[in-house]
Design brief:
The protein has about 140 residues and is mainly α. It is built from 5 helices and no strands. About 75% of the residues lie in helices and about 0% in strands. Helix 1 crosses helix 2. The model has no long low-confidence stretch (mean pLDDT about 90).
């Protein structure tokens, strides 16, 4: 047996209810019944907490992965800078213009290679993981 209830809704909420029921091809009364059941159920808070926990866990995993990639990037840049500074002698003033022109060409090549890697979804982190193997990446 069902008991009839009469209540009023704000126009915006009434419109949302009608749109949702039409999209799902169910009656508005069924939508209201499900919403009230969910709202009044005693385990609603626990379900909400579980959903939030799952979302936080996913964000934590994403942040951990991001931290790992940032560490790899920082170490790669630091290693390159150290290598470059220790192996590149200072240039005399007479060779500076030619070195700058050569550097511009090499930089353009670098940007093109970087663009190709990004288009192919290649990443340094993946290459390092593949080369080291699963046991060595946790060390």
């Amino acid at each position: 047996m069902r008991i009839k209830h009469t209540f009023r809704l704000p126009p915006a909420l009434s419109s949302q209810l009608a749109d949702y029921a039409a999209r799902k091809r169910i009656s508005q009364a069924l939508v209201v019944e499900a919403a009230l059941t969910s709202f009044l159920s005693p385990d609603g808070a626990e379900r909400l907490e579980a959903a939030i926990s799952r979302r936080l866990d996913r964000h934590t995993r994403n942040l951990d992965r991001l931290e790992h990639h940032v560490k790899i990037s920082n170490e790669a840049i630091a290693l390159f800078v150290r290598f470059w500074l220790t192996t590149t002698p200072p240039l005399p003033d007479t060779a500076l213009a030619a070195a700058q022109a050569s550097g511009q060409e090499r930089y353009k090549g670098f940007i093109e290679a970087l663009g190709r890697r990004i288009e192919k979804s290649q990443s340094l982190a993946r290459e390092i993981s593949e080369e080291r193997g699963p046991d060595e990446t946790t060390a």
